Amino acid sequence: MNNSDHQAQAGDNGIPIPNVADNVIAKRYCMKHAALSSGTGDMKAMHKDELKKFDRVFIKVDNDTLRRLISAANVMGVKGLIDLACQRVADMLKGKRLKQMRQTSGIDNHVREGGEDPQVGGE
Fold it and tell me: Which end of the chain is least crowded, N or C, by CB within 10 Å?
């Protein structure tokens, strides 16, 4: 497979994954979660806390990386990473006005004239 199609083969099952750089990031998430998902009782609770801390730090990426990470997680079928990344997007947009949401999301549409600029999930 050449570099021009921007895909890599994941594992032995040959699942095509777009954006090799973000595949590496997604793979790091999967490896950490796989390593800490085992155990029972107190060990499992300790691992759960460690994973929460890891996730909080892991998901603090720029908007472009976040979008590509969602795409890679979707292609890979990593529900936990999709949920984590989508929650990050929701947190970023919470309480923002439509114009701010569009800027944050990189959407270049304009509110029609006379239209309201509603606030989402805010007070």
Answer: C
- Identity of residue 13: N
Q: Using DSSP, state whether 96 is helix, strand or coil.
A: coil
Distant-in-sequence, close-in-space partners of 58: CB < 8 Å, separation ≥ 6: 28, 29, 32, 84
Distance CA 101, CA 119 (A): 9
Cα Rg of the chain (Å, integer): 18
> 78: closest CA among 20, 14, 15?
15
Cβ proximity of 16 and 9 under 8 Å = yes
CATH fold of the domain at 16-105: Potassium Channel Kv1.1; Chain A (3.30.710)
pLDDT band at 110 (very low <50, low <70, confident <90, very high): low
Helix (H, G, I), strand (E, B) or coil at 66: helix
Domain boundaries, the chain: 16-105
Give the predicted TM-score (pTM) of the model: 0.65
